[in-house]
């Protein structure tokens, strides 16, 4: 199927799901009870409408008559790096408050740099990680006076 | 006129306080560096640095952001000229003749004329801004909730309908942005909407998270695919005197003065933006030139015209944001968001209630142009060294900066999950060529749009005719229809011209 047809199908499904949720929204106890619903419902209708229009315009061209070179390319290595980054982001979320900014950032940044650059550049990865983590901590806490989570050790 | 001049002088007094002046210089330098980095550009740059301004006074924060914006517009062309890799869309046209000039050993002239043209374009358009700001703000006082609602529809539709190919996808992105703005407690009834029982969503999805996620993290995800294989091109870092000859100046001044108004008026139009301004001015000059064959082979006019136009465009884009309170581009949407976070209501009343801030920012545009010119002429050799930092080091650092920025909004790491999801959505949007600017714009104005919609409905006792009652509304609807139809009209006109 053409890439735009996928976009259209996603829009229609998302619009329907959103519209379903909008209809189920609790009504306002004061004033017009439908007031909180009008706007979201209008958006759901618009989403489905544009999705259907896009699907129709793609279907007219022939859904399978597509130039394969124009399709989005997802490489295995690229997807692997993105998934690893997402996993590291989730790990960062969990450790940020528990380990404090500096330690969680050191772990996150070193892991990410290692995955991207490989272990052959470990020394550079360590230097960049430490300089950036401590540098950002210093700038935010001292220059911008923003309180960042501290480590369990009580320092940084 | 005297009143305007008085306000402007007060604005200079605001900018020239030590703290504001320092942020003006720092912001310009930071913006120049961010603008140079391919793929980042002004919008992502401002979005990433936006949280840093939360602890600043409103005037300081806006001065810093404007400085970053101008710096990025100045810096965007550095990588175009030296590497043939534009920092952002607006700098694409600078590659056409800037890079050939550098290859011919004329990098100094190219860097100089890009800074000089940017400076002149920025200065002339800032003067035009000063002259137009007060009348526009006065006119905007006639706007009530229905007019504002229709104005926002116009801004969104114009941004979404920027090209025929992506028209429907732009509309889908716009609606998605509006949908994101409906998450959280309903401001009027207090009812939770689309929170799925998740406490963290009750406050809504902050548009800063949307912006940083879609632009910043989405960009990083896209670059991760080819980051390891990417070869860092060698960058020229040693230059002779960065200046132009009298002959080059004579060739450039005409194109600069002709294309500055073009860029400025394109900037005022919602959705058009720097890329269109730069491309249009390049084509204009090519058509006007007695030697069009030189264009693309190092014609200095081909670099001067788009540089002047894209800087003029960036100033023009500020007009609807400051005077009407409605942004016309991704970058001004981020700045509008910043105004709201700082507790300011953009629009005509900003000039009445906070003249020091409004005029301080305008004065900072004038001084910022001087600062950017100084940074981009003598310090160009130093700054372009940033271009030799490989993406495989740069992008992980950007991810940390993005997380740190998002943390400073609610001081909750739970927002990191939302940021990651939105980053992945942004990545998919780029992959499927769905425009991201309408989503950003919609997520920023979505709250205001719903508010004005509901106020209008209340005023009219649930009659939708209120949106077509006033002449302003009718004109705005007509403009909306034209902006949606324009990609089709221009294509038909081009086809007819070709056939003839």
What does the model show?
The complex is a heterodimer of chains A (156) and B (500). With 156 residues, chain A is mainly α. Chain A folds into two domains: 3-70; 76-143, no CATH class. Chain A is built from five helices and no strands. In chain A, helix 4 (101-117) packs antiparallel against helix 5 (122-143). The longest helix of chain A is centred in the first third of the chain and has 27 residues, at 35-61. The relative contact order of chain A is 0.09. The mean pLDDT of chain A is 89. Chain B is mostly helical and 500 residues long. Chain B has one domain (2-499). Chain B has a two-stranded antiparallel ribbon. In chain B, helix 4 (58-83) packs antiparallel against helix 12 (300-316), helix 6 runs parallel beside helix 10 and helix 7 (145-160) runs antiparallel to helix 20 (437-459). The radius of gyration of chain B is 22 Å and the shape is globular. Chains A and B meet through helix 1, helix 2, helix 3, helix 4 and helix 5 of A and helix 8, strand 2, helix 9, helix 18 and helix 19 of B.
């Amino acid at each position: 199927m053409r890439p735009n047809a996928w976009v259209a199908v996603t829009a229609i499904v998302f619009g329907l799901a959103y519209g379903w949720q909008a209809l189920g929204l609790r009504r306002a106890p004061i004033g017009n009870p439908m007031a909180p619903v009008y706007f979201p419902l209008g958006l759901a209708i618009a989403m489905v409408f544009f999705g259907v229009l896009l699907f129709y315009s793609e279907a007219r061209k022939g859904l399978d008559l597509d130039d394969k070179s124009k399709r989005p390319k997802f490489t295995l290595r690229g997807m692997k790096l993105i998934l690893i980054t997402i996993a590291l982001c989730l790990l960062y979320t969990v450790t940020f408050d528990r380990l404090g900014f500096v330690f969680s950032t050191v772990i996150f940044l070193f892991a990410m740099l290692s995955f991207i650059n490989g272990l052959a550049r470990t020394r550079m990865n360590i230097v960049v990680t430490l300089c950036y983590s401590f540098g950002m901590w210093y700038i935010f806490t001292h220059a911008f006076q923003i309180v960042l989570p501290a480590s369990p050790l009580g320092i940084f | 006129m005297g009143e305007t001049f008085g306000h402007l002088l007060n604005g200079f007094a605001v900018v020239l306080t030590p703290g504001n002046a320092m942020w003006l210089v720092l912001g310009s330098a930071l913006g120049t560096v961010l603008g140079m980095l391919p793929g980042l550009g002004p919008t992502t740059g401002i979005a990433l640095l936006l949280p840093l301004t939360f602890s600043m006074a409103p005037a300081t924060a806006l001065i810093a952001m404007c400085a970053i914006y101008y710096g990025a517009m100045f810096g965007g062309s550095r990588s175009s000229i030296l590497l043939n890799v534009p920092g952002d869309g607006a700098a694409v046209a600078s590659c056409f003749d800037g890079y050939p000039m550098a290859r011919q050993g004329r990098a100094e002239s190219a860097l100089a004329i890009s800074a000089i043209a940017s400076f002149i374009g920025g200065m002339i358009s800032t003067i035009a801004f000063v002259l137009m700001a007060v009348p526009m703000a006065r006119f905007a006082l006639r706007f009530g909730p229905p007019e504002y609602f229709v104005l926002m529809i116009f801004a969104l539709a114009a941004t979404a309908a920027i090209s025929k190919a992506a028209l429907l996808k732009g509309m889908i992105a716009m609606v998605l942005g509006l949908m994101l703005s409906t998450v959280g407690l309903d401001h009027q009834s207090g009812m939770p909407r689309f929170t799925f029982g998740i406490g963290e969503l009750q406050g809504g999805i902050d548009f800063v998270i949307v912006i940083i996620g879609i632009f910043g993290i989405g960009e990083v995800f896209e670059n991760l695919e080819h980051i390891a294989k990417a070869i860092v091109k060698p960058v020229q870092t040693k230059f002779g005197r960065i200046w132009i000859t009298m002959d080059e100046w004579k060739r450039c001044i005409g194109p600069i003065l002709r294309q500055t108004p073009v860029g400025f008026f394109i900037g005022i139009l919602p959705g058009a933006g720097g890329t269109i301004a730069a491309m249009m001015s390049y084509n204009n000059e090519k058509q006007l030139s007695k030697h069009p064959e030189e264009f693309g082979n190092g014609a200095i006019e081909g670099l001067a015209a788009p540089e002047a136009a894209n800087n003029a465009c960036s100033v023009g884009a500020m007009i609807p944001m400051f005077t009407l309170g409605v942004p016309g581009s991704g970058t001004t949407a981020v700045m509008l968001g910043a105004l709201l976070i700082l507790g300011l209501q953009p629009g005509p009343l900003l000039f009445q209630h906070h003249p020091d801030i409004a005029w301080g920012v305008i004065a900072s545009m004038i001084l910022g142009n001087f600062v950017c010119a100084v940074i981009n002429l003598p310090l160009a050799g130093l700054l372009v060294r940033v271009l030799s930092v490989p993406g495989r080091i740069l992008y992980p650092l950007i991810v940390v900066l993005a997380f740190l920025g998002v943390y400073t909004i609610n001081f909750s790491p739970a927002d990191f999950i939302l940021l990651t999801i939105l980053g992945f959505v942004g990545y998919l949007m780029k992959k499927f060529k769905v425009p991201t600017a309408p989503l950003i714009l919609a997520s920023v104005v979505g709250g205001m749009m719903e508010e004005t919609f509901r106020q209008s409905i209340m005023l009219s006792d649930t009659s939708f005719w209120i949106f077509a009652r006033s002449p302003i509304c009718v004109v705005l609807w007509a403009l909306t229809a034209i902006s949606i139809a324009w990609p089709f009209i221009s294509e038909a006109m081009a086809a007819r011209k070709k056939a003839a």
